[in-house]
Write a structure and sequence with these properties.
It is built from nine helices and two strands. It is mainly α. The protein has helices at residues 11-17, 21-42, 46-69, 75-100, 110-137, 151-167, 176-190, 210-225, 227-262; strands at 145-147, 195-197. A two-stranded antiparallel sheet has the order 1-2. 73% of the residues lie in helices and 2% in strands. It has a single domain (18-262), classed as Four Helix Bundle (Hemerythrin (Met), subunit A) (Up-down Bundle).
Length: 263
């Protein structure tokens, strides 16, 4: 074969084989924040570990938006983002909760000690299953709603719990059983079929009423007073919204059925 006959890659193929730096840079930063959270949790720096996961949440929200704004979406970026999410919103919160509270269950006996790390593992496994299910359902479901609690929201509920009570000087050894319940519930909500509003249909470029701007300013002001409480409260309400809306729809369905029988 002559040198000139060697097949060359087209520009499109070269672009597909390469990596987009900007969105993957945000994903890498989110992964770093998740990894740092794990290191901080092992060292007993629980507040720093919680803040690191919160930073990972912000970075995770930015990488997708940056990719869409710069038209640099790719299959590689989507898979890399999921792997980073598993570390930041699965392993990091699970280990943080275990190090702060669940590990103290071993003081009650071997069986309770095993229950502590098993529940932490269940949370991590549920985060992995949630991410895998999300990837397989992209484009097949209503984008306005998530099926199951999103992993960043579950992580926020976990780290918010640690952050609030640690900041209030509550010892993890005194919070073992509530921590066990919160960890198990957060994990199961991720793999549930409850619908959660995704906020993806909101167009931030459109004009909003003046009162909405005032409410945003008030919300930011409250967040600066005590960030742990605000984060915990917001995501606790969001996590509860799925089961509450399911019960409400079920109630309305039963009421319609009764009216149909009476007619």
């Amino acid at each position: 074969m002559e040198p000139n006959d060697i097949p060359t890659l087209s520009e499109e193929e070269k672009r597909r084989r390469g990596l987009y730096i900007l969105p993957n840079l945000f994903t890498t930063a989110a992964l770093f924040a998740g990894f740092y959270s794990i290191v901080a949790a092992i060292q007993g720096k629980y507040e720093l570990a919680a803040v690191a996961v919160f930073i990972a949440m912000i970075l995770d929200g930015l990488d997708g938006r940056v990719a869409r704004m710069t038209n640099t979406q790719s299959a590689f970026g989507a898979e890399y983002d999921s792997l980073a999410d598993l570390v930041s919103f699965g392993l990091a919160p699970g280990l943080l909760m275990y190090q702060w509270a669940l590990m103290h269950l071993k003081e009650l006996g071997i069986a309770w000690g095993k229950a502590g790390w098993l529940v932490a593992f269940i949370y991590v496994a549920c985060a992995a299953l949630r991410l895998a299910r999300f990837n397989t359902m992209v484009g097949k479901t209503d984008k306005r709603f998530f099926s199951g609690l999103p992993s960043p929201a579950a992580a926020a509920l976990m780290i918010g719990t640690v952050w609030v009570f640690y900041d209030s000087e509550v010892l993890g050894s005194h919070f073992m059983f509530p921590a066990l319940l919160i960890t198990l519930t957060s994990g199961l909500l991720m793999v549930s079929n409850f619908s959660y509003y995704s906020f993806k249909d909101i167009d931030f470029r459109n004009k909003v009423p003046f009162v909405v701007g005032v409410l945003i300013i008030l919300g930011l002001s409250l967040a600066t007073i005590h960030p742990p409480t605000v984060i915990f409260t917001v995501f606790l309400v969001y996590a509860a919204s799925g089961p509450v809306m399911w019960l409400y729809r079920r109630y309305k369905r039963i009421q319609r059925r009764k009216k149909g029988e009476e007619a």
